[in-house]
Amino acid sequence: MKILITGGAGFIGSHVVRLFVNKYPNYQIYNLDKLTYAGNLANLTDIKDKENYTFLKGDIVDAAYLEGIFAEYQFDAVIHLAAESHVDRSITDPLAFVHTNVIGTVNLLNVARQHWKENMDKHLFYHISTDEVYGSLGEDGLFTEETAYDPRSPYSASKASSDHFVRAYYHTYSLPIKLSNCSNNYGPNHFPEKLIPLAINNIKNERPVPVYGKGENVRDWLYVLDHARAIDDIFHRGKVGDTYNIGGVNEWRNIDLIELLCDLMDEKLGRPQGHSRKLITFVKDRAGHDLRYAIDSSKLMNELGWEPSVTFEEGLSKTVDWYLENTEWLENVTSGNYTSYYEQQYTDR
Ligand code: NAD
Ligand code: DAU
């Protein structure tokens, strides 16, 4: 089987690519990535020479490029992760999110539909989405697959739009699709603009740790490898046309999470307890900041037997260790050097 994975040089995509390349040596895995600021081939150095792995540098907004690779490689399935993924960036530049997340997704749907039309049911388009499409919860309740869409940031509006297009292609053109909507991921290779890796980097360097507003917003955190395992399960055993919610059953207020991280890093770095908490700095709140996300994953658990395998204590400890050990990765990413350096290994099509 030939699988096109988009966004495979990013945070979650790189873990999905590695899992598929290692677990399924008979599959050919093609990683299509534009290598934006968030894409980093250093995330995949361990598998880059495997026979069943091919990197394709390209932009999903470029329909002619997609046409060329579909004609050349004849993919059987797509797992679509490529996206602009950071909410704060979407507030300053919403159009970039429309381009990649909406137009890029529709381009992929079009090319898949055209190339697969003779034997549609032998193919699959699996779209990776977010719990943010459901909006914001109060103190109680969980997002289920039936929760009405209520996106509230330009990022979540663009992801909601892409989800709607994916379902529209299923209903209108019988394109076989699957969707999953996941909560906040954390783990190795997470770009240090997002809360957990940003806090780890700042605590390490004794710089202020910015907490938006009063730090009372709640997120449901899932270790990235558990998300990759869920994607594997849904890809192989999920029902065509269906949506699956994926969450960590692990809700934390931002301030409690940051305090936990400060204490954990004090311990690991041999600093006196309470030292790093002094770095916590309350800053202006994010515009339209969603209060709480929490996911009900019971459909995925009951139908496919998935459950999170990594506890938060274990996952956070592994994540901190990874960032403390991979100083070169962190320095390259924060200095912006990595793209030009790694791009040299590959030529554009
Ligand atoms: P990321 O920003 O780390 O990676 C995105 C990848 O997509 C990068 O490698 C980037 O180079 C690539 N890309 C961006 N624009 C592209 C384009 N036009 N053409 C080709 N490649 C392009 O993102 P992530 O956090 O790994 O998220 C991956 C997917 O999972 C996204 O669709 C996101 O919405 C979804 N998701 C993320 C989370 C999370 O907590 N990070 C949770 C749920 C769902
Ligand atoms: O819920 C899934 C989503 O999780 C994904 O779809 C997104 O791609 C991913 O980026 C993530 O979105 P969030 O906005 O929840 O993640 P972020 O790490 O940016 O912020 C987590 C929380 O921490 C949020 O309440 C905002 C807050 N925050 C964030 C940053 C970067 C801070 O308090 N300070 C910060 O510096």
Biggest sheet: strand arrangement: 3-2-1-4-5-6-10
- First-last Cα distance: 23 Å
CATH level 1 name of the domain at 2-187 and 221-249 and 289-310: Alpha Beta
Q: How would a crystallographer describe the biggest sheet?
A: 7 strands, parallel
How many β-strand stretches?
12
Task: Report the order of strands and helices.
Answer: EHEEHEHHEHEEHEEHEEHEHHHH
Q: Please tell me the overall pLDDT.
A: 96
| Low-confidence runs of at least 5 consecutive residues | none
| Helical content (DSSP H or I, runs of 4+) | 40-55%
Strand fraction: 15-25%
CATH superfamily of the domain at 2-187 and 221-249 and 289-310: NAD(P)-binding Rossmann-like Domain
Helical run tally: 12
> What gyration radius follows from the Cα positions, in whole Å?
20 Å
EC number: 4.2.1.46
Domain NAD(P)-binding: 4-319
InterPro entries: dTDP_Gluc_deHydtase, NAD(P)-bd_dom, NAD(P)-bd_dom_sf
Catalytic activity: dTDP-alpha-D-glucose = dTDP-4-dehydro-6-deoxy-alpha-D-glucose + H2O
Concise overview:
The chain has helices at 11-23, 63-73, 87-92, 94-116, 154-173, 195-204, 224-237, 254-269, 298-304, 312-325, 327-335, 338-343, and strands at residues 2-6, 28-33, 53-57, 77-80, 124-130, 177-182, 184-186, 209-212, 218-223, 243-246, 251-253, 280-283. It has 349 residues and is an alpha/beta fold.
Describe this structure as you would to a colleague:
This protein is 43% helix and 16% strand. It is α/β, with parallel strands linked by helices and 349 residues long. Helix 6 (195-204) packs parallel to helix 8 (254-269). The chain is globular and about 65 Å long. Nicotinamide-adenine-dinucleotide binds at residues 6-7, 9-13, 33-36, 38-39, 59-61, 81-85, 100, 104, 128-130, 159, 182, 184-185, 191.
